[in-house]
Amino acid sequence: MKIPLFFLFAVLLCAQIERPQLGLMLDANGAMRPVYGAAASATLGDPILTGVLSFGCSPQICLFKTDTAIIASDGTSATAPTGTAIFAIHGASAYIYFSDTQQWARWRDGQLEWIDFMPSEAVSTCTVMLLEDGSLTATADHIALVRTDGSEFDFAVAGVQQFFAMGSSYVQAVTDTGMWILRVEPGREEIFLLPGISQ
Amino acid sequence: MMVRFLLLALAAPLVLHAQLTMLIVTTTPAGPVEAPAGSVYIFAPVAAGDSADARFRARNISNTGVTITALSPLGPPLGGGFIVQFVPSTPYTIAPGNFLDIYVHFVSGAVGPYSGTLQVSTQDNTWSVSLQASVIPGPVVTVGSPCTGPDPTGAISFGRVLVSGVVNCTLSIFNPNPQSLTISPIVGSGAAFSVVAPPSVAIDPGQSASFPMTFTASISGPAGGTLTVGTRAYSLTGTGFNSPLSTPILSFDTPTVASNEQHTLTIRLPQPSPVAASGSVNLAFTPTVTAVTNDTAIQFVATSKRVVSFTVSQGSTAVLLNNQAGAVFSTGTTAGRITFTVDAGAFGLAGDPTTTLIVAPLPVAIESASATTLANDLNITVQGFDNTYTAGVMSFMFYDRHGNALGSAIAADFSADFLSFFQQYPAGGSSFLMGVTFPVTGNVSTIGGVDVTLTNSAGLAHTQRLNFP
Question: Most CB atoms closer than 10 Å: which of A124, A196, B282, B430?
Fold first, then answer.
């Protein structure tokens, strides 16, 4: 095969090699920890934030709910209602539901924008997470991953109470007995236990 | 070895310029006890080959710091003598109300008397105490099988025996000295132990005397006692256990394992447990690669530990691991051997259930890969792991937008980069995220894709065709 003259490689640059970070997890003590390695052989880094009740990450930003605030990984923060929160995060913005006070807000540009929405009856939430191309739903004895193309995957993990988006390809599932890491990348769907810390 | 000492308080408590008070500290069951130190300290007789220790304490009773400028003797005591141990380098300042412990260690030499002087100097004064010790002929104490010891700490073990069982062994006392040796007392203490010996025995040079010793396991669990042979004291240990558990059967959810997997260990007993029992299951990892000595990801995952507790009910064959039916462990990203052992402690096991799983070397495992362009650069990213820690050699085969190969594959060797990376995290596993950039002269948009081949000691690994956007 003749190599086109305009296609000339210069000298290769050195390879940049680093530890792969799968995302962040919330440990049993309320500390955020980076998760390194491979999903079935993950190792945890030191805590980067403590006192966290829930969180959500996109490739662009992570939002952390502490008892009284929303803290973003870009350094911004805002006072927030007490208790946990559920994040639907996309890019650098997110919709947030404060379940204790049943308030809705949008996170944009480092600020909470309150949404004037109060259902006539109390909102009943179940453990669901929306993905870019589908959704995760927890039932009593399994997790269902359903994609918009109709494909479905079941994972036999019982008692999931919360989902947290760890980053672009992984979701943390929290049960009474363990923390799980669920890979949601199409074609690589699998679930493993995360290392436990002082449970 | 415990050595009793005698303290002669020949003078009132020594006080240096009303700044330091010197004390002697003895250890009692209730804790350390201080007493005024005299000007002479006499060690109890020390058998040849033994040693003895004394603990002095310089307490600052002033309102200002006191600086210790020198301590002696610092030794080493050639041929036997005294040495100050475990003290800081001088000058050393003791804060008001605080103290410094000064340990004097006596090393025995030839039989005879020894003397020395402990000196503690401050800016203003020097405090001295005369040290005296005598080395007496000492015996050589041994025990016969099945007992073991005495070890360097003076421990003699009777091992393990079924409850209500008895372990008999022989205590032998040999006189290696040129003169006759009288040993007194020879006595054992501890409810489970007995030594049958006269109050005193004379042993001729080069001769031995032997006495029976017995451990009776009346209850399950460890028992302790003391054997006193003249000036020496030895600890006696023995463990009673109930009928041992039948050899546990360790099972896994798969017959073979590979790197970066999680599997479940379950354990059952072939026969019902005679008692409610508990213990631990230990996981150990030995790499078969030379680049690392460990992989911390290989552990019981839920607890992040390499040990998990087990319990089994009386009459049951089901063994619970951390109160669960099974325990999940990770195989990590390093080739090697994962070994499981069961420790039933005092309950005992009828056999050794140690089980080893082999994690074989593999070609580089590619978890994900992508290709992008940025200006005139082609960027290729590969995430994966190399359980052999030998990655680095690779090749890149580029294709045009029609899928035609562009020349031959470009070879590269990043072995040094990988080795350096792995050395940064010597027990962190072999997962890596690699980025390689190719600067291109010409129209980068004509390049449609690339195949990457990575080589390690176990073989080749290929990406799927990575397409440039």
Answer: B430
CA gap B445, B449 in Å, rounded: 10
* Beta carbons of B297 and A42 less than 8 Å apart: yes
Whether cis (ω within 30° of 0) applies to the bond prior to B73 is yes
CB atoms near residue B286 (< 10 Å): 12
**Which residue in chain B has the smallest CA separation from A21?**
B433
User: CB contacts < 8 Å between A and B, how many?
Assistant: 147
The 10s digit of each residue's pLDDT in B183-210 is 999 999 999 999 999 989 999 999 999 9
Name every residue whose Cβ is closer than 8 Å to that of residue B386 and which is 6 or more positions away in sequence: B333, B364, B365, B418, B430, B432, B454, B456
Which residues, in sequence order, are CB contacts of A139 under 8 Å at separation 6+? none
Position B90: which residue type?
T
More confident residue, A47 or B439: A47
Domains defined for chain B, CATH in brackets: 5-136 (2.60.40.10), 140-241 (2.60.40.10), 249-359 (2.60.40.10), 365-467 (2.60.40)
Nearest CA in chain B to A43: B297
| Domain boundaries along the sequence of chain A | 21-121+161-193
CB B127 within 8 A of CB B23: no
Selected for mutation to probe chain B from A6, A29, A43 (highest B CB count within 10 Å) is: A43
If you average pLDDT over each of A117-121, B66-70, B454-458, which comes out highest? Answer: B454-458
Nearest to A12 among B407, B412, B434 (CB): B412
Strand partners, B94: B66
Counting every residue, how long is chain A? 199
Q: Which pTM does this prediction carry? A: 0.66
| pLDDT one-digit tens code per residue, B107-162 | 888 888 999 889 888 888 888 889 999 998 889 999 999 999 899 889 999 998 88
Strand partners, A103: A98
Host H or E run for residue B330? strand B327-330
How does strand B46-47 pair with strand B126-136? parallel
User: Residue A19 is which amino acid?
Assistant: R
Question: Strand, helix or coil at B423?
Answer: helix
**Residue from the list B297, B406, B418 with its beta carbon closest to the beta carbon of A37:** B297
Q: Of B279, B308, B302, B283, which Cα lies nearest the Cα of B294?
A: B283
